[in-house]
């Protein structure tokens, strides 16, 4: 089977979040099921630099009014179709925002072009390679099923994956003339959304099937609390909705072979983990004592519950713990956490920004990771933590609920617990979870048991890739 994946970011070429990890790892895992995936992604400067000289070039003249070329290349095992369209993607800022952090005003056009290119590939733009199915990711890829639906050529099945429904690609209706869509596409059954255009809403209407990244999140987005205004659209497609939990690349995230950590180790050699713990303390200027090191690797936003973390810092320090923070986001939250680090020198350290090697070291050297998200479609950070024996302390929501087994008395007795869940998701709930973590940490034998149980968890893509393969096969066999 041949599958075209349409994504705005793909690890290791470009990454701002978990979408890139999924778009980079799932195609490799699907290979075991006889599925050949080619991934269409934008030709950002970093991507163009990394791919060197491409093997093939396919012209797409006049792609939404701009010249574009498809570059057919292979990079670290991934088969890629890079959309080389300088007018859209050759920019000095990030994938979605400029150097000042503001959205590019023509994002609507940039990612419509990506999606339109995907539709053209689905309809035979590449001689000798026509996909059986198109898999689009998030709002940036969601227009691919829309363009396929309104094309007069035979349609192929498509899947749209919602990684985070909070980001919907909503724009003013004035962009309609620039989208190369028929006027009737601007309707309730199409891309119209309260008088605006919504790329995600259009994709939800047009895709043959919809997936999201955990079973719990699939249930949550049917409610007004989590559906972000699209719960009605999704409820109408409930028979086509599938919750499939994400996996991680077990080769990249492996403490026994990870070149980014100070000392490799495994479940049978946990004592070697101490060297990584020392390096984390050194990097963040934390006191070298036996108090637990909690870490945070996250966007610093309200969604991620970072305001709850601000409220909990003093509690961590008062109980003898330490805190290492890596991330960036809301300036007010950054400032509040920097102030906490200044107030608690030796107990709280912070690094602003994105640092992939440091994130690996933090998982390998911290005792526990805090993930107090108000909603979390899947989350990958807790899966990395399980692999590295870093105990996840998580809010009971979305994929966090599906992937972490709470250390309640029954789970501890059965020796199946892998972390701590808390609810309600507020300051009191987080502080109570922290007190539980301190009590567990005081029993080192029990803590080691939890670490080893977590490290036994299968968080690879094998099971989830099998579910995607089965879904693809059913859609291709069924046809449109």
UniProtKB/TrEMBL annotation:
Residues 2-235 form the Starch synthase catalytic domain. Coiled coil: none annotated. Gene3D superfamilies: Glycogen Phosphorylase B. Residues 289-422 form the Glycosyl transferase family domain. InterPro entries: Glyco_trans_1, GS/SS, Starch_synth_cat_dom. Its EC number is 2.4.1.21. One of its GO terms (cellular component) is cytosol. This is Glycogen synthase.
């Amino acid at each position: 089977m041949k599958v075209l994946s349409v994504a705005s970011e793909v690890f290791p070429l470009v990454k701002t979040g978990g979408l890139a990890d999924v778009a980079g790892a799932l195609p490799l895992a699907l290979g075991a099921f006889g599925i050949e995936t080619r991934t269409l992604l934008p030709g950002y400067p970093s991507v163009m630099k990394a791919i060197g000289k491409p093997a093939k070039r396919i012209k797409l003249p006049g792609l939404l009014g701009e010249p574009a070329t498809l570059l057919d290349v292979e990079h670290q095992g991934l088969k890629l179709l890079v959309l080389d369209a300088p007018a859209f993607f050759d920019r000095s800022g990030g994938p979605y925002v400029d150097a000042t952090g503001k959205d590019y005003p023509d994002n609507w056009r940039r990612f419509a072009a990506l999606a339109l290119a995907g539709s053209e590939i689905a309809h035979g733009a590449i001689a000798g390679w026509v996909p059986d199915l198109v898999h689009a990711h998030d709002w940036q890829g969601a227009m691919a099923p829309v363009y396929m639906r309104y094309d007069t050529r035979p349609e192929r099945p498509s899947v749209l994956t919602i990684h985070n429904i909070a980001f919907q690609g909503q724009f003013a209706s004035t962009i309609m003339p620039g989208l190369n869509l028929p006027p009737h596409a601007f309707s309730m059954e199409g891309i119209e959304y309260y008088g605006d255009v919504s790329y995600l809403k259009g994709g939800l209407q047009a895709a043959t099937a919809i997936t999201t990244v955990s079973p719990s999140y699939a249930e949550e987005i049917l409610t007004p609390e989590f559906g972000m205004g699209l719960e009605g659209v999704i409820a109408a497609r409930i028979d086509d909705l599938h919750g499939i939990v994400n996996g991680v690349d077990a080769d990249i995230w492996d403490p026994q072979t990870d070149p980014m950590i100070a000392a490799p180790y495994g479940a049978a050699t946990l004592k070697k983990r101490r060297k990584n713990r020392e390096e984390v303390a050194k990097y963040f200027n934390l006191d070298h004592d036996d108090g637990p090191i909690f870490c945070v690797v996250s966007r610093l936003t309200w969604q991620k519950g970072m305001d709850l973390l601000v409220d909990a810092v003093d509690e961590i320090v008062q109980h003898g713990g330490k805190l290492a923070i890596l991330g960036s986001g809301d300036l007010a939250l950054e400032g509040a956490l920097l102030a906490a680090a200044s107030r608690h020198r030796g107990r709280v350290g912070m690094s602003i920004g994105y640092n992939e090697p440091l994130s690996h070291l933090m998982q390998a050297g911290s005792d526990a990771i805090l993930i107090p998200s108000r909603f979390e479609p899947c989350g990958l950070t807790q899966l990395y933590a399980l692999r590295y024996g870093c105990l996840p302390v998580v809010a009971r929501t979305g994929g966090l609920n599906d992937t972490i087994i709470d250390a309640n008395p029954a789970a501890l007795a059965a020796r199946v617990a892998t972390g701590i869940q808390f609810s309600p998701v507020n300051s009191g709930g987080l502080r109570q979870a922290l007190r539980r973590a301190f009590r567990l940490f005081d029993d080192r034998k029990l803590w080691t048991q939890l670490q080893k149980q977590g490290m036994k968890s299968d968080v690879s893509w094998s099971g989830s890739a099998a579910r995607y393969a089965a879904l693809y096969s059913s859609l291709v066999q069924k046809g449109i």
